[in-house]
Write a structure and sequence with these properties.
By secondary structure, this protein is mostly helical. The protein contains 19 helices and eight strands. The protein is globular and about 75 Å long.
């Protein structure tokens, strides 16, 4: 049905080729052209609940189906060259750098092993959550989550109540902690790719402090309550009692140097993006490899992106080569989590093309104009539609508002307060559901593999609504009036 609607849309609009700009294309596209985008996101949310085994076996086919539901009708209506130009553009500029960064952080962090006897007391657990929240902005929410989730689970080996700790881990380490740098969370990295200055996200520090400190306080008192209900023997035992206590140690330290190299590569690409070697100021575009020309516009793979992504890939390969395999085995490393993210996001990025074009062109019609509205609109959708593409959608809306001065991006200039609201909404409220951010999937999977029975999709939302939503209301009054 979706393909049929898109075919009708394509036939009704003459195949004169895609417009040169997102605004013109967005003005021509009907709203039903976003149905494949909605379809793939609903599939991600509902299919695992209905039949998890079927979903695990067929998620790639589902992603491919929804990608075709968008792409094939566009070929029929506008011609292969024009349709392929749009698809290639979003993969080259957005998807490939996004997946390269996420995969590299996932691979490198898996080579770092934290060992030692940790007691799963409220103080220790709260410290791990706080350290993880800080690390999330340095090595990414994915990197910090993969680095600390297993030591945290080992520390709680003798605890009876564990679920609340994993949930707060998702809140803090998997999401809110990654709000200070483009390395921290995928939405901010996509913003960086579209022109948001690398260090601009440090303006979120006041929000970071309020939210992290509030959640750590709530967690400490909650964990103190639960531990008092547990059997006395569980309070005395430590994970290493059987073999003696072991000091806290970190193996695979060289991987921290690789993570530092990734950060340096990203900062380099931001600082030198407009350098004459990488940018042709006379022509007004990046230097690079020309891939495809359509309607007189040539898609270029920017030289700065090639340099940055090549360095990131090289660092990941060095980590795989130089890190002893035993360390990754100790971390129970598999390619499954990152493969799932790559497959699903391939479909998401393909089907988001009409949504981005329409919202950039007609975003003002939604009535979302104030920082508070952007914070909640971006945030609510981030919880259900995955926060990375949702960030791009609302960045396009903000760019289409016609703000004269503010923060420049290649999607338009926007007021700092609105950009802050979009950034905070997408990163913070990605914690509202399991599907809001990639680490949420990974942490839940690792916890369940360790024997911790995690809440269902809607039971988890009960936790997030009762704990996070009041905090986000406070954010609105403090920062977005």
């Amino acid at each position: 049905m979706v393909s049929g609607l898109l075919c009708i849309m394509a036939v009704l609009q003459p195949a004169t080729g895609f417009a040169a700009t997102g605004e013109t294309l967005g003005a021509r596209l009907p709203l039903w052209s976003v149905l494949p985008f909605i379809g793939i996101l609903l599939s991600i949310a509902i299919a695992p609940i209905l039949n998890l085994h079927w979903w695990e076996q067929n998620m790639g086919k589902v992603s491919f189906f929804w990608g075709c539901a968008f792409f094939l009708p566009f070929i029929i209506g506008f011609g292969f060259k024009q349709a392929f130009y749009q698809l290639l553009h979003i993969y080259v500029i957005d998807y490939i750098p996004f997946i390269i960064l996420l995969t590299a952080l996932f691979v490198i962090s898996s080579g770092i092993v934290v060992r030692g006897s940790l007691a799963g007391t409220p103080a220790v657990n709260t410290t791990i959550l706080g350290v993880g929240a800080v690390l999330a902005s340095i090595i990414g929410t994915t990197g910090a989550s993969m680095l600390l989730i297993r030591p945290l689970i080992r520390a709680m080996a003798c605890r009876e109540h564990k679920v609340h700790t994993i949930i707060f881990f998702i809140f803090l380490v998997g999401n809110i902690g990654g709000s200070l740098t483009p390395v921290g969370d995928p939405p901010l990295f996509l913003g960086f790719l579209h022109g948001v200055p690398f260090f601009w996200t440090l303006k979120l520090l006041p929000l970071f402090l309020v939210n992290v400190l509030a959640l750590l306080g709530v967690y400490y008192f909650m964990d103190s309550y639960f531990i008092k209900k547990e059997a006395p023997v569980s309070l005395q035992m430590q994970p290493a009692d059987a073999g003696g206590r072991h000091p806290l140690r970190v193996a695979g330290l060289m991987n921290f140097a690789f993570i530092g190299g990734i950060i340096a590569a990203i900062v380099f690409s931001g600082l030198f993006a407009k350098h004459p070697f990488f940018f042709d100021s006379a022509a007004g575009h990046d230097r690079g490899i020309g891939l495809l020309t359509a309607d007189g516009h040539t898609l270029v793979m920017p030289l700065i992106n090639i340099c940055r992504d090549s360095i990131i890939v090289l660092l990941a390969l060095l980590s795989l080569r130089l890190t002893p395999p035993a360390l990754r085995r100790e971390n129970q490393f598999t390619w499954g989590p990152i493969k799932e993210v790559a497959v699903l996001f391939a479909g998401i990025f393909a089907t988001i093309i009409p949504a981005l074009a329409i919202l950039q062109s007609r975003g003002g019609e939604l009535g979302v104009t104030t920082p508070a509205q952007f914070f909640w609109a971006t945030g609510i959708l981030s919880g259900f539609l995955d926060n990375a593409p949702t960030y791009l959608v609302f960045l396009s809306i903000a760019g289409g508002l016609g703000t004269v001065s503010g923060v420049w991006t290649d999607l338009g200039t926007m007021a700092p307060g609105i950009l802050m609201a979009i950034s905070a909404g997408s990163v913070f409220m990605g914690a509202n559901t399991y599907i809001g951010n990639a680490p949420n999937f990974m942490v839940r999977s690792i916890a369940e593999g360790s024997g911790i029975k995690m809440p269902s999709f809607f039971a988890y939302m009960g936790w997030s609504i009762s704990i996070l939503i009041p905090l986000f209301i406070l954010n609105t009054f403090l920062f977005f009036q």
